[in-house]
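Notebook entry, structure prediction.
Reason for the run: the old model in the group folder had no record of what sequence produced it. Starting over properly, with the input documented here first.
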Amino acid sequence: MTPIDKKEFSDFLGTDADLQKWKLKLLSKLWFVALFTLVGALMGAVIYLAWCKIANGETKYQVATDYYITFNEQEYPNGMDYYNAYTWSEFIKDDHIVEPALESLPEEIDRDCLMSYVSTQMLGDYRLLTVLATGTEPGYAKAISQAYEQALVDFAGYIPEILSIEVWSEGEVTTINENTKLPNAAILGAVIGLVLSAIALALWCAFDDRIYTQADVAGYLPGVTFIGYSGDLFGAELEANLKKLDPEGKAERMSAASNLAAVGSRCILEIPMGGIKATQLVRRIDFLKTQECEIIGVIITRCDDKFLKRYYR
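New structure, fully documented this time:
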């Protein structure tokens, strides 16, 4: 790798080389994006579960019991039309049902509590009624369901349009799943984590002025000769350039990563790859110039050969 002048460096910067460096830096930090995406998903799920716990309170249990209603269609041909879902939602509050049900329930379940625990459903067929008994304990839900079974069966005797109400099927106690949107919350958290981490990574790349490549030397240190990269990949080119620029080998090797003190008349500056910011490097080069130390050129040391292979392929 022979030394190139400032104009050639400028032409070099006009290619896709810097975009290639950006791509490689971004790829090296994909773990960061993946980690924050996972953290975002976990945080979204945790926040949602916490919100559900606060909003819904205690865990609720439910028993769904289906009833079959036989209507007196001979005397009341159109009677079935009046007994829809809305009608039954009002009937379950009727004293003829509520009072008998309360008699068989524990004293801590009063009328207001019972009304908040019972609801009805009627899907299409007016002959099929579903009563949902809910409670904060499995035993309460089951007790309410059983109390309504007898009360509803007896209630048929008060309605002339109805011949009988029978238990069609008695459900088991189930836990009400209040967290039905947990996957959505996790996905939303993951998307937010992905977007924020991608933005943070892009900003890091944009403001990272550390020296990685020959193009960085040209961009941040105009007029300073790039000698080469240390390491196996470009080691032969580095040795060839050193023999040409410092044939006697008398130039002092100085690390740009350390504070400069006493200096000689000629030096070669060693820059560890990605180990020093351009702003720090410019200050140290100004120091050398003030000391009237001739900078033969710079060598990028501690090179990542895998990075350079991808960069120059």
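Summary: The two ends are 15 Å apart (CA to CA).
The old model has been moved to the deprecated folder.
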